[in-house]
Amino acid sequence: MKKSKVICVHIGARAHYLLPKAIEASGQLDMLITDTWIGSGCTRYLLTLLPVRALRSLAGRYSKDISSQKVRSFGFFFLLLEFYLRFKHTYGWALIMKRDRQFQLRAVNKMHESVQANCVFGISYTALECFKIARQKGMKTILFQVDPGIEEELIVSDLLNTYASVTSWEPAPEVYWERWKQECSLADRIMVNSEWSKTGLIKHGIPAHKISVISLPFIVEKKHAAFSRVYPAAFSAERPLRCLFLGTLTVRKGIHLVIQAAKELYGLPIEFICVGRSEISDDFSTQANIVHHGLVTREETDMYYRQADVFLFPTFSDGFGLTQLESMAWQLPVIATTHCGDVVQHGKNGWIIEPVTSKELAAVLKNILSDPDLLRMCAGNCLNTVSAFNTEKFTADIASIL
């Protein structure tokens, strides 16, 4: 069968370019269109020396696995916009939609530079204009849907109606979802990373036959394999059970359940370490068994994984939840839900809480506290779990839908 020649339209460096790298590995990448690409090694080095973390991270807008000759990126307009968004941290839908619209219009212009491409692979919410042109040219269109779409917004809205907290979250305008529905309609195939996302799309009228579930991969590095996790015979006030929540502190990801569970378990030898930017107003800095750290570097993230005893992922909705694999690569068992990628096997490499409540989370932690051997057993199965989510399988799965 004739191989596709793919234009990958990819805003940002999502999962460090996993998608375009997989297309390139399959020998089918014709062009990568992205907003910012730092092809110069000298420029990347200079960026790493900057004192501002938001600017240093731009050095990651590059991958050695993709030839810069295949990349088309934009000029100073998008770089300046990127600076603005990174410094501000929170921004409204008007700015998001303006950025996405400008990205798509520039991507359409870059598409015309390809003379042999017959397929466009775009990321949800930023692919509509490119799909319109692709359809006019008779090209195949594939959409990478990163989450359950509008279903996730409805879930968050319901949560906020029942959970009394001021948050920076706001629903997307109606036109945003109208454009998304057009995107899905123009897509010949839609890739999601979990059955959870697939169910969410089907619930809102997306045909099941168009949807392919492809799990995200993770690479186990030498630092992971060399690490040896040790648990105490029993937890105590001097050596408490360390529970890590890492990521943006949002109601969608269940941070309110962690806070409530910490209150319910106060007085027991359990410590909750929350790492990431907070989107809720709750002041839990006075809660003695919770420690909150803001944005951290990759090296600091690794340190928190190593120091923790169990990873908390009580999400109400995630397209996949790559932190599940990141934590298991450090032999760190995970407490998760069924509202994300299928990584956790209950009682084998972690625990699934159902229903998703603070009481269920607290009950699992009490059980672990009374029997640390449960952690040792689950930790021993983590690396084998991660090895099943390898890049070779991901590349083959991507190639199968091109």
Automatic annotation (TrEMBL):
Pfam families reported in the protein's UniProt record: Glyco_trans_1_4 (PF13692)
This protein's UniProt keywords: Transferase
GO MF annotations in UniProt: glycosyltransferase activity
Native organism taxonomy: Bacteria, Pseudomonadati, Bacteroidota, Cytophagia, Cytophagales
Gene behind the chain: wcaL
Signal peptide: none
Protein name: A-glycosyltransferase-related protein, glycosyltransferase family 4 protein
GO BP terms: lipopolysaccharide biosynthetic process
Keyword Transferase among UniProt keywords: yes
Record flagged with keyword Transferase: yes
Domain of life: Bacteria
